[in-house]
Amino acid sequence: MGIDGTKVAVATVNSNVVSVLFGGAFFGAIITSWASYYLGRRAALLYSMVLFMLGGALQTAAKNLAWIYGGRFVSGLAVGATSLVAPYYIAEISPTKHRARTVGAFQAFLVAGSLLAYWVTYGCDLHFHPTTTNINPPPGTNTTGTTDPGSPADPASSSSHLEFHSAQWRVPMGIQMLPGVIFTVLMLGVKESPRWLAGKGRKEDAIEVLAWLRSVKLEKDGGESDSGSEKTSVNGGTTSTPPQDKSKGEETPRDTLSVLPTQAPARLPEEVNAIHAEYAGIQAQLDETRGASYRELFSRANGKRFAIGFSDTRSALLASGVFGVCKFVATVASLAFTVHRYGRVTGMCAGTAAHAILFFILGAILKTRPPHGGPIKPASIAMMALLYLYVIIYSFAMGPLPWVYSSEIYPIRIRELGQMWFTALTWACNFATSKVTPILFVSLSLLFAS
After folding, report:
1. Considering the entire predicted model, what is its pTM?
2. Which of 169, 188, 355, 415 has a CB 3.0–4.6 Å from the CB of 410, allowing a cystine?
3. What is the CATH number of the domain that holds 277?
C-alpha cells in the first residue's frame, strides 16, 4: 500500500495491523459471552461469521490503512466470538470420552488455517512480482521508464521505485472469507446446544437434540449408553444452577457473576496458565494473522543485522511454510495419540520447560555464531532446526492443552464466565505481545525473542 519510512515506522504499522485484530478479539470474546447466553451458541456463531466476512471484505477492498485497521478490528470481533463459543459448544455436544479430542480439534483447525495462510502468502509472493517504475524520469523517457525515440536520456537524473502488486495482499485477504462461507453453510444444519436449551427450560427440545446428536431413539436411550447419562444430566441441569431470576425463571449473567468471589480464587492458576500459554506460544500464533510472520525469524531483522541468516524473502517464506507443515502434523498427532495419555498440567509444564531450554540454546547460538549474510551457515541451519523442534513441542503441549483444560475445570455454574475470561485474557496477551514484538525485533533482533 505504499508504506514508506524508517524501519521503526514500518514495524509500527505492522504491529498495528496485527494487534488491532487481537484487540477486536478481546472485545469480541466479552461481548459474545452475553450474546451466547441470550441468543444461543448457534446464533452467536452465525452472527460472528457475518462479522468475519464483513471484516474480510473491508480488508480486501481496502484503499488505505484505515480500511485495513477497520477490517482487522471487525474480523477480530469475529475471531474472539468464535474462539469463545466454538470450544464451549463443542464441549457441550461431545460425548464425555471424546471431549478432549473434539475440543483439541479446535486448535487443529486453527493450525490448518495457519498452514493455508503460509502457503497462500508464499504463492502470492511467487506469482505476483513487484515492478520497478521511474520517479521523475529524465528527459527522453516516458512514465514507464522506456526511452522515447529520438530523445536523449540521462539515466543519472532518474530514480527508481519498487511497486508491489496489490494482489500480493488482496488475494490472501480475500481467501480468508472462503472458510467463513463454508462454516456458515455447514452451521445451517447444526442443532442448538442441548445444555443451553435445558438452561432455558426447554428440556424436551434438549433431549430431542441430544438423541439426534447420539443417533439414538428417545424410547431406547435408557441408562446403558453415554446419552442416557447425559439425558439425566440435562434433566437435572436446571436444578444445579445458581439462584434464578424470579421474573424469568432462569439464571442470568448477574447471577453467575455473584458466585465469582467464592469461585475465582480456586481458578486463578488456570488464568495464570492462560498467560503462560500465550507468551510461550505467541510466536506460533502471530502468523495466523498475516501480520508479523515467521519469516521475521528466518530473514533480515534490521539492516545488516540478521535473524538466523535467511536473507532472501522467498526462502524465508518457504522455510516458514515448512514450519507450518510441522505445526499441523504435530498438532494432529498430539490429538490422535497423546492428549488422553498425560495430565493437562503435566503436559503444559513440560512443554514450557522445553521451550525455555530451546530458546536459551537458540539465544546462545545467535550470540556466539551470529549470521552476517552470504551463504547459509551451519549455525543458521541449527537455529532453524531448533525453531522446528519448538513448534513440534508447542503443538503437543501449549497449543491444544490450554483450550482442553479450560473447558474441563470449571463447574457448570460458572463455566461460561470462566471460559469467557480465559479467552479474553488469551487475546489480551496476544495484543500486548504483538504490539511491541515487531518494534523490538527491529531494535534488538532475535535477541529479544530469545
Report:
1. 0.70
2. 415
3. 1.20.1250.20
